[in-house]
Amino acid sequence: GTRADNDLYINQAIVFIEDAIQYRSINHRVDSKSLWLYRWYYSRICQWILSLTITIILALAFLEKPSSLTITSDVRYRLPAWNPPCGLTESIELLCFLVFMIDVSVKSYLIGWEEFWKNKWLVAYILTLIVSLTDWIVSLSFFCTENVRIRRILRPFFLLQNSSMMKKTLKSINSTLPEMASVVLLLAVHLSLFTMFAMLLFARTKDGQQDKEWVGYFRNLPDSLTSLLVLLTTANNPDVMIPAYSMNRAYSIFFILFTVLGNLFLMNLLTAIIYNQFRGYLLKSVQSSLFRRRLGIRAAFEVLSSLREAPANAQQSHVSTGALLRVLQKVEMDSRCKQAIMRSLKMCSCDQLSAAQFQKLFEELDKDAIKQHPPSPEYQSRFMQKMQFACGHPYFGYLGNVVALANIVSICVVLVMDADKQPSERDDFFLGAINCFFILYYLLEMLLKILAMGLKRYLSYPSNRFDGLLTVILLVLEIATFAVYGFPHRGWRPEFMGLLSLWDMVRLVNMFIVFRFLRIIPNMKFMALVVTTLLDLVKNLRAFAGILVVVFYAFAITGIMLFKGAVVPLGNTRYIGNKLNTSWLFFNLLLVLYFKEKCDFITLFGHFQAEVIQCLLRLLSVNLICRWAKIYFVTWWLISSVIWVNLFVALLLENFIHKWDRRCHREPLSDIEYQRTVELMFRDVLEEPTEEELMEKLLQHPHLQLCR
After folding, report:
1. Any idea which architecture 179-269 has in CATH?
2. I need a labelling partner for 266 at 20 to 30 A (CA). Which of 29, 130, 282, 350 fits?
3. Is the pTM above the cut of 0.70?
4. Residues 6+ away with beta carbon under 8 Å from 46
């Protein structure tokens, strides 16, 4: 009876509120057993197991043949990699598939059969599992000797479908594609026209000495297109124009016009369009998230208003404060929000809450996360009060920054003076002595700040935690140096002892000192704004990073299968191209294409560049198979550099502009820190859903029957 119904309503309200907190859909079964299963599925342990399973199945690419378990990626020097026996990684993969089958089964049951066919992601989930299992069976039947494994390309889908924000981001990107396609088409027209002009300008002549431009870059249509496409990325600039420029300076006008129109106008126009369109689609996505939250809260109100505690003769639905308190005690939510809601509820003088009052209570979820720092200690001694005032004053922090700058300058002076000296001629006394002095000052500064602010207040500031941690590390390293090599003195060049030489220890200390100089960032408002913008992107835009991982992974696996055995390393007569095709090596290849510039390429990858250059030369040579390889690399460039980098720039601009506007309208409060999520970035421009929209959506719920 009544008690069982009341318990069901309470449990439904708990789940609906948790759905609202996590922006989840409420279109799922709401009977007692299903609610228990639903909460179990979204519990931390289950979600942790699912995330771990996704991580494991993605990491299998580094273990499977060709294995990436080698110290160096240079195929000339590395030992043969360990390849797991047939059935080992396949067994791990099967366990992962079992977890995914349980996952999709639970999801399908909870939303119901009718909703299942409307959910394209779940249908795609099942199809991906079927294809993967089929490919797994085929792989075992060939004793793991097959080269093409379709299921490896499909693995990123498991990461994609598990994140609602990634799915929304992908949907937003898909909606932005028509607008981006117009600019990409304009780029293609620009490229095609200049390709025709180039083939006419640099046509073959009777004088072979003047055909260097034609031989090197514009021999035929594919080569001409490739040369100008690479020039669009500035990777072959100015190499592509040198032969023609050497013959006649006027030819440079052609390359300048191509670069100016392509890079300065069309590429920046693409950035502007992506920023404008993608921001609008992302705003719609966040608007739908807000609607889900309001719908979940309203659904909780409706089921709680069905409790027998509510007065029968009420004109409007109401919820008792006691029932809401019972629900809040069982809801899993942030303690700050829960305490704020319960505090507001206790301050409310009424015993019954209307729908508007109920919704207003949960607006606490939409507010900035405010972190207030603990108070400073109160000293009775007048001397301690003066010390507290002096050490807590901003000028004391400025003094610390000046000392840190002096430390950096002294290190630079010593490094410049010792740059050309042999290790046997170098005297580490001066550098060791100044390091000792400055580290003692850093320790004294940290202790005085703790004295002035108190330990809890000191640790509540991220800049102080950063500063204090590096000071402790520097102190430990300095003590270890003195314990092994003694105190600094003239001619301080002891023999190698322990794990690191004296010079290595001094270098390590200096690296941390240089890194510690970043403490000045919070004191420079504009720099602090830029850094906090970047940190917010790292914290809140994980969905974009996830999609980038999906793109990298899919292209890496595809490249391994397409270009297996395509490379013979320079200086090695053995055909070991098979060993080159590891996922880690191909990640390096993709990174090389991403950085593009030759100087960066050599700096980042050292002696490894010879193999990658050879790989590119072989892949992009004149034979038919390698010509098709250009499509692969151009597609990668379009997705990663053209589309994805511009998307990141668009979101970086949006985040920065938003923070700048808030900085201009908010007065600085030293004891309060504001933390925002990506949903709250657009909070000021979102529209609240009307009651009619909420009730219309609730009445369409496939599993919930409201009393009215």
Report:
1. Orthogonal Bundle (1.10)
2. 282
3. yes
4. 40
Q: Which residues pair with 319 in a beta bridge?
A: 353
Q: What are phi and psi of 475, to 5 degrees?
A: -65, -45
Rounded to 5°, angle at Cα 10 from 40 and 26: 60
pLDDT, tens digit (0-9, with 9 covering 90-100), for 112-123 = 888 888 888 999
> What CA–CA distance (Å, rounded) separates 380 from 409?
41
Query: How far is Cα 365 from Cα 379, in angstroms, rounded to an integer?
Result: 38
Query: Residue 523 and residue 398: Cα distance in Å, rounded?
Result: 8
Q: How does DSSP classify residue 575?
A: -
Find, among 516, 666, 633, the residue nearest to 566 by Cα.
Answer: 633
Same topology, domains 179-269 and 382-523? Answer is no
382-523 CATH fold: Four Helix Bundle (Hemerythrin (Met), subunit A) (1.20.120)
pLDDT at 396: 84
User: For residue 2, how far is the Cα from the chain centroid?
Assistant: 50
Q: In the chain, where are the structural domains located?
A: 43-162, 179-269, 382-523, 537-569+580-673
Answer whether 680's CB lies under 8 Å from 658's CB: no
- Residue 197, SS3 per DSSP: helix
What does the pLDDT look like over 11-20, one tens digit per residue? 999 999 999 8
- Please name the amino acid found at residue 59: A
d(CA 690, CA 695): 9
pLDDT (tens digit per residue) in 180-189: 788 788 888 9
